[in-house]
């Protein structure tokens, strides 16, 4: 009975999270709801990290972890879109959600914009290097075990390979969306709300990079989890 329940959960968890992600993307949420969703996001990835560390210390294989990583990536992408919509459509800079401003604050001086850009670029470059390295490592392991006939390893690395592909793809999506958020926020502020164009540019720059930096950091932490998953079979 327990095995059947676990199999059912394994098959449906990613599908369920994809449905949740679609709802989050389609439905605008209030700031208070976004805070709760972001809290769940951070708490879940921290728990995943703790579980992987326990698995490594006890030398136990936890085959459900790659599936949870994939579900988390889908949820994280949807949350990023929800927060981005809030950044673009909120009129007053001081009314922005704290998720978008708690890293860089609400200071829109030129100095803060430059510092934000430097942090964003450094994190972006390090993220691309680290994630691509992890992707290559998983791919190499996946190729090496295909002919071994070990069903447990094949299933584990199959899900892990899929998780890493989504992880990399979503990270690139976040990078791509950062200038989109900046441009859209600037245009909405200037054309819809009639704010001075310079203020629109500075506010949108800080908000777009602040949101991106938060999620880049989460994805780098998730890559740390993937590296520990690999060590279970090495």
Task: Itemize the secondary structure elements and their pairings.
Elements lengths: L1 H25 L4 H28 L6 H25 L8 H4 L8 H36 L5 H42 L4 H35 L3
For the structure shown, list the relevant keywords.
single chain, 234 residues, mainly alpha, 83% helix, elongated
As residue ranges, the low-confidence spans are 1-9
End-to-end distance, in Å?
32 Å
Please tell me how large the radius of gyration is.
Answer: 20 Å
The biggest beta sheet reads: none
Nearest-integer average pLDDT: 77
Q: Which percent range fits the helix content?
A: over 70%
Structural class category? mainly alpha
| Approximate shape | elongated
Order of helices and strands: HHHHHHH
Number of strands: 0
Beta-strand content estimate: under 5%
């Amino acid at each position: 009975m327990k095995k059947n329940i676990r199999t059912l959960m394994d098959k449906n968890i990613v599908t369920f999270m994809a449905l949740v992600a679609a709802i989050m993307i389609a439905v605008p949420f209030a700031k208070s709801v976004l805070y709760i969703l972001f809290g769940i996001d951070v708490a879940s990835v921290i728990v995943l990290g703790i579980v992987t560390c326990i698995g490594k210390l006890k030398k136990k294989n936890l085959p459900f972890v790659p599936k949870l990583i994939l579900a988390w990536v889908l949820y994280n992408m949807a949350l990023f879109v929800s927060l981005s919509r809030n950044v673009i459509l909120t009129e007053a800079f001081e009314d922005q959600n704290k998720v978008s401003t708690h890293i860089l604050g609400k200071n829109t001086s030129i100095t803060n914009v430059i510092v934000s850009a430097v942090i964003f670029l450094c994190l972006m470059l390090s993220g691309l290097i680290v994630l691509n390295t992890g992707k290559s490592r998983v791919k190499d392991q996946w190729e090496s075990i295909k002919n071994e006939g070990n069903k447990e390893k094949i299933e584990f690395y199959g899900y892990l390979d899929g998780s890493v592909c989504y992880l990399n793809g979503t990270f690139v999506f976040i990078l791509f969306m950062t200038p989109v958020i900046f441009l859209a926020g600037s245009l909405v502020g200037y054309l819809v709300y009639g704010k001075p164009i310079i203020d629109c540019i500075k506010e949108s720059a800080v908000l777009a990079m602040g949101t991106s930096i938060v999620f880049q950091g989460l994805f780098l932490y998730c890559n740390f989890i993937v590296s520990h998953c690999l060590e279970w079979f090495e």
